[in-house]
Design brief:
five-stranded antiparallel beta sheet, alpha/beta, six-stranded mixed beta sheet, single chain, Rossmann fold, Alpha-Beta Plaits, binds adenosine-5'-triphosphate
Length: about 300
C-alpha cells in the first residue's frame, strides 16, 4: 500500500519558518495523528506533502518515491478549508470524482452521504460547515485510496458524526490504507491513532507510538504541608522530564521508575504522594505548553 517518509522538511515564508527540519515516517496501514497548537505547522506540512506549498528543503517520499502523477490516484486529501464548488450539487461532485478516479466507489459514497444525512441534490453553497466537511470526507473515503491525508476531518461536525469519521478512518486502516490526520480534539486522536507527532512552532516536539509514549512516562504528584518545601536532589534529576511546582503541589513528569520518586517525595515531607497515568492530552500539553508564569517549572533533558 503506502509508506510516507518525511525527511528534514523545512518551509519558510519570507523570514518566517513555518516548518523546521521535520522528519518522521508514517508506516503502511498506520493511522497517524498530527497534533499541534494553532499555527504549529500542520497544514503547511500537509501542503508540502502534496506540493501545494513548495518545501524550502527536505523531502517527502511515497513508498520511497517523490510525488508523481502516477501516485495521484492513490492519494486522497481533505484540506482544512472547503474545496467544494458552490454552484454544484453534492451529486455533481460525486459524478466529477467518478469520472476522475477509476477506483472511486459510487455505491460507497452514496451510503456515506446518506449516513451523514446529506442530500445529494443540495448545492454545495447550501451545506452547513459540518455538512461540507462530511461531504469532503465521504468523497475522500470513497476514493479507496492507499494514502489519506486529512486536515481536521472532524472540524465542524457534531459528536455523532465526529465519531463516525473516526470509525471510517479506523476502517480505512483496517483495509490497509495509510492515514495521516490532524485534529485539535486530542481524545479523538487518542482513540484512532496508533502513532502521533506533535508539532510546536514548526518543530517536532514528540513522535512515536501512542502506547510507548504513555508507557514510558508517569506523573508523580505530591502535596506538601506548606509552600516552603525543598526538592533537594530531585529538581536536578535528569530522569525528570518536567517539574511543575505550584503553591503546595508538585507534579513530576518522570521517564523512569515512578515508585522511586514516590519514596523520595515522601522522604522530603510530601503527603498523599501518588502516581498518575498520563493520557495523550497530558503528553501533548507537556510537549508544547509554554512556561507557566504562576508556577515554577523546570524542564529536564529527558523530554
Ligand atoms: P491551525 O491548527 O491553526 O490550523 P496549523 O498548525 O495548521 O494551524 P499552519 O496553517 O501550517 O498551522 O501555519 C503555520 C504557520 O505558517 C503560521 O504561523 C502561519 O501564519 C504561517 N503561514 C501559513 N501559510 C502561510 C503563507 N501562505 N504565508 C505566510 N505565512 C504562512
Amino acid at each position: 500500500m503506502s509508506t510516507l517518509t518525511i525527511s528534514h522538511l523545512r518551509k519558510t515564508y519570507g523570514p518566517y519558518t513555518a516548518v523546521n527540519d521535520l522528519s518522521f515516517e508514517v508506516p503502511e496501514g498506520c493511522v497517524f495523528g498530527l497534533l499541534g497548537p494553532n499555527g504549529a505547522g500542520k497544514t503547511t506540512t500537509f501542503k508540502c506533502m502534496l506540493d501545494l506549498a513548495q518545501a524550502s528543503s527536505g523531502s517527502v517520499l511515497f513508498n520511497g518515491h517523490p510525488l508523481a502523477p502516477a501516485a495521484f490516484e492513490k492519494i486522497a486529501y481533505v484540506p482544512e478549508r472547503s474545496v467544494l464548488y458552490d454552484w454544484m450539487t453534492v451529486g455533481e461532485h460525486v459524478e466529477m470524482q467518478r469520472r476522475a478516479f477509476a477506483s472511486f466507489d459510487v455505491k460507497a459514497v452514496a451510503e456515506l452521504l446518506a449516513q451523514f444525512g446529506i442530500d445529494q441534490r443540495k448545492k454545495a453553497r447550501a451545506l452547513s460547515k459540518g455538512m461540507r466537511t462530511a461531504t469532503m470526507v465521504a468523497l475522500a473515503i470513497a476514493r479507496r485510496a492507499d494514502l489519506l491525508i486529512l486536515d481536521e476531518p472532524t472540524s465542524g461536525l457534531d459528536p455523532i458524526n465526529q465519531r463516525h469519521v473516526l470509525n471510517l478512518i479506523i476502517n480505512e486502516s483496517a483495509r490497509g490504507a495509510t492515514v495521516i490526520f490532524s485534529s485539535h480534539q486530542i481524545g479523538q486522536v487518542e482513540r484512532a491513532a496508533e502513532r502521533i507527532a506533535v508539532l510546536d512552532r514548526g518543530n517536532l516536539a514528540l513522535e512515536g507510538s501512542v502506547d510507548d509514549l504513555k508507557a514510558g512516562r508517569k506523573i508523580v504528584e505530591a502535596i506538601f504541608p506548606s509552600e516552603s518545601f525543598s526538592l533537594d536532589g530531585i529538581a536536578s534529576d535528569a530522569r525528570i522530564a518536567r517539574l511543575d511546582r505550584s503553591g503546595r503541589i508538585v507534579r513530576l513528569l518522570v521517564t523512569a521508575d515512578a515508585n522511586e520518586f514516590v519514596t523520595r517525595l515522601e522522604a522530603l515531607g510530601g503527603a498523599g504522594v501518588r502516581i498518575v497515568d498520563l493520557n495523550l492530552e497530558d503528553i501533548f500539553l507537556y510537549a508544547v505548553s509554554p512556561h507557566d508564569a504562576t508556577a515554577d517549572v523546570v524542564e529536564g533533558a529527558a523530554k
